[in-house]
Predict the 3D structure of the following.
Amino acid sequence: MFVLTQFVETIADLINMVLTAYLIIVFARAVISWVNPDPYNAIVRFLYQATEPVFRWVRRRLPLLTGAGMDFTPMVVILAILFVQRFVLPVLVHLVRG
C-alpha cells in the first residue's frame, strides 16, 4: 500500500506542477490579449498554440456574451485549474491514504 500511496502522491504533485505552468501560460495569454501583440512573435505564437485548443473547447460549451464583447474563456480555464489543484488532487491523495 505504501508504494501505491507514494505513486499517487507523486503523480498528483506532477499534475499540480503542470497545471501551475499552464496557469501561468493562460494568464500570459490573457494579459497579451489586452494589447495588440505581433502575431509573428515566437512567444505570442507559443501562447496561442498552447492555449487555443483548450480555449476552443471551452468556447464551444460557453456561450459568448455578444453584447459585452468580452471573452471569459481564460477566467473559466483559470477557475477550472484552481478547482483541480485545490479540490480534486487533495481528495485523490486523501482517498489513497485511507
Remarks:
- The chain has one domain: 2-97.
- Residues 2-97 form one domain.
- The mean pLDDT is 91.
